[in-house]
Specification:
By secondary structure, the chain is an alpha/beta fold. It is about 45% helix and about 15% strand.
């Protein structure tokens, strides 16, 4: 199979474009694709500096550009080089313009401005890193989401993924011999979610982890009976506290995070529905 050079070019961080490309490429599991990532392209001068790579590595160009001059130059260059090029968001924006009855704002980087939302995401990432693996329990109440589960149930990578979506996350390992701090059972603000998996799958993951550390000695960490008891211990805790549970056995990190976000959104919607309606001042 021939290699495809995929050029991703954005006038902002390129996060939206990367997510779109990743979702599309997931439909072609064995494709040989080399990505060339070009973020923050906000001028024709900047674009000119990278067109040489387009010529050296011809392929498909996906772009999100708001500046008309930069966009026109890119499209002209692609036509000259006979490169297929797609403005990734145009069909969606056009459909929204038609339905909303208004024109989209042509602001470079408008999707990912370094505004309040950006800094909130940075804050979320910092919080999540500082509260990994049961650290700083005194701050758990400040979290949006708390993930609990036995070792190797994808707590940390899921937490980081959620943090990149703007959620402050703490994650807590559940160990039979060392119960978590009592504060875990008193949390009010964060949504606590239990992560579980099939014992056989967990043993396989843990064995791979030990092999990566050059540890070949048989330990209780991968003992079938011990692991089954760990998983059962965690499940009882989830049930006793009424926490929602996600089985990560056959889920990717992205799928697990999406399920957590859905639970959080549903919880927020329930809380919103319970709030009394706001009323204006009474007429005199």
């Amino acid at each position: 199979m021939a290699r495809l050079h995929l050029h991703l070019l954005s006038d902002s961080t390129g996060e939206t474009l990367e997510m779109l490309a990743k979702a599309a490429l997931a439909q072609f599991g064995d494709a040989d694709v080399q990505r060339h990532f070009w973020p923050m392209v906000r001028s024709v001068q900047h674009l000119e500096r990278i067109l040489g790579d387009f010529e050296d590595n011809p392929g498909l160009v996906l772009y999100t550009l708001s500046n008309e001059a930069t966009r026109d130059r890119l499209e002209e260059a692609c036509r000259h080089l006979s490169l297929p090029h797609v403005s990734a968001l145009d069909p969606v924006v056009a459909a929204l313009e038609e339905r909303l009855g208004q024109q989209a704002h042509g602001r470079p980087g408008g999707k990912n401005k370094m505004d309040e939302a950006y800094f909130e995401r940075v804050d979320a990432i910092q919080f999540t890193i500082a509260h990994d693996d049961g650290i700083a329990s005194e701050n758990w109440e400040q979290a949006d989401i708390v993930l609990a589960g036995v070792s190797r149930t994808s707590k940390t990578p899921t937490s980081i993924y959620l943090a990149n979506r703007g959620y402050k996350v703490a994650n807590i390992p559940l160990v039979v011999e060392s119960p978590p701090p009592p504060i875990l059972f008193k949390l009010k603000n964060p949504l606590v979610v239990g992560l579980t998996t099939a014992p056989a799958r967990l043993i396989q993951i843990r064995r791979n982890r030990l092999l990566s550390l050059n540890e070949k000695t048989q330990t209780p960490y991968v003992d079938e009976e011990v692991v089954s008891k760990e998983v059962a211990f965690a499940r009882r805790m989830f049930a006793d506290n009424g926490w929602p549970v996600i089985d990560v056995t056959r889920r990717s990190i992205e799928e697990t995070a999406a399920a957590v976000i859905k639970l959080h959104q549903e919880r927020e919607a329930r809380h919103e529905a319970k709030r009394p309606p706001q009323t204006g001042p009474k007429p005199i």
